[in-house]
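Sample intake sheet
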Amino acid sequence: MTTATAQNDLFAAKNGGTGNGKKPASTGKKRAANGNGGYDESKIKTLSSLEHIRLRTGMYIGRLGDGSDPDDGIYVLLKEVIDNAVDEFITGNGRKVDVRIEDNCVRIRDFGSGIPLGKLVECVSVINTGAKYNDEIYQFSVGLNGVGTKAVNALSDLFRVVAYRKGVYAEALFERGDLKKETKKGKAAKEPDGTLVEFHPDPEIFGDFEFNLDFVQRRLWNYACLNSGLSLYLNGQKYESKNGLLDLLGREVGTEDGAASYEPAHYRGDRLEFAFTHVEGYGETYWSFVNGQYTSDGGTHQSAFREGVLKGVNEFFRKSYNGVDVRDGIAGAVAVKLKDPVFESQTKNKLGNTDVRGWIVNDVKEAVVDFLHKNKTAADTLEQRIVNNEKLRKDLNAVKKEAKENARKISIKNPNLRDCKYHLGDRKGGDESTIFITEGQSAAGSIVSSRDPNTQAIFVMTGKPQNAFGRGKAEVYKNELLFNLMMALGVEDGVEGLRYNKVVLATDADVDGFHIRNLLLTFFLTYFEDLVVAGHVYILETPLFRVRNKKDTVYCYSEKERDGALKKVKSPEVTRFKGLGEISPKEFGQFIGDGIKLVKVTIDKMSAVTSTLEFYMGKNTPERREYIMENLL
């Protein structure tokens, strides 16, 4: 197999032509005999499909990462294999999936029909091979392109697959996509039908990685809620759901402990399932799925669901309520099954099918009307919530107008913002668009000098932001700093207006920096929780230490890394970075460039947000004082 390094060299050939039909200007240097810098037939290479996966990994699994982010590549590998097991359940074959993760080795056993023995090797190593092209077998599958398991194979230094069918098995062992051993037919009288897949992600691709079992548990819980009747196990722990998305919503917002304003609406049909209620807070929060795939960026099915809720509410109450008033504070989950889902990327984060809008809107509208007719208490509570939202919105409009007038008097432009060229939604650079929220001019100076002005913006805070906990949304408009931050992000009218894909908190790694980080997180979780749920908020990791001598320089992100560097670097000089401003712009560039380290801010349960914020950011209590004494002092 061609190595990753050698493969990169394949594309390093230079084309000497100018591309405009004119002769290139003479350089005074002798060119290759063929007149195009040596670009000839010998430079044309054909990669195998598995070699291409290893070379262009991002095309198949998105980001790589080290396992610290739930969207890192190792979890995509896990998902691809579990998707196949769940597809077996959907087709009526097998009601159990067993997952075991030990020492970063993954073992997944399903009890479906098992891969046909004679096609085992092809199904896990040849792209565009599989039964999911056959509508008679798999009607509602996510993995319709025949790539998933092949990517897992190519990106694992060890990959083993065993298929069991009617007391007979076939087995294949691969290393980085290369077949090393094959058993075409053997006896397995006591093994039930199904497929076993074992793999270990390749350190050559993923580096020093580790599975976070909390992330895996959350995935399995989602699978269980989307497939009532299916039992999934993780290292012996069972996950199953009887009530589908109603259970998922209950886990997320705590519908059983009073967090919900009213009994959640729940509808389950052949192609559509949804559940929703209202909770304390602002904005809209959704969990949307297509054929079991979590679409973190939503898509046409989520938009149609939102529209259907509004139409159903207005039809029932015979009013023309504003969509903002109806949906502010809503928490909902929606799942659809489609024969031909069209996603906007290989990682399937956003649905693009436009033909689903009509029937989803209609089904949701009718189900909402039916729910409100049958649940008078919920209907009364919802109507009161809408009326209150309307009143708050109108009261807030006066505050908004005054804040905008004051801002216009101060400056035409946002005084805290150093903007970038491309923004979220732009075809070019939109996905890379990032805004760094930093404290003080010294820290901002290093970032501004070393940033990419095309995709990286800077928001400079002057002083600490206000503690948003327990305050109404009008406070955002009355506080100049928070107002400017909201306007810079473009979220005044909702998350749809977000101007940057990544909102990065870049504060110093000291007590003051951590305090500011907590104040910012409180701001987002209080007013714009949906930004966090959608995975747009991150924390920037910068080195704490620099260990160097005349030859070597090592940047360390922890005391453990520093101690390790001290053993490797002879006669070292150690620098402790107390603030971002102490890192020179020349050094800082590498920490916000290709080597940037970001930690995504995630929410385990929405129901825990209020109590967590109250404990850390609310009034001082004996419990918090005791916690500080035990853990910090």
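Comment: The domain at 412-542+586-602 is CATH 3.40.50.670 (Rossmann fold). Residues 1-34, 142-146 have pLDDT under 50 and may be disordered.
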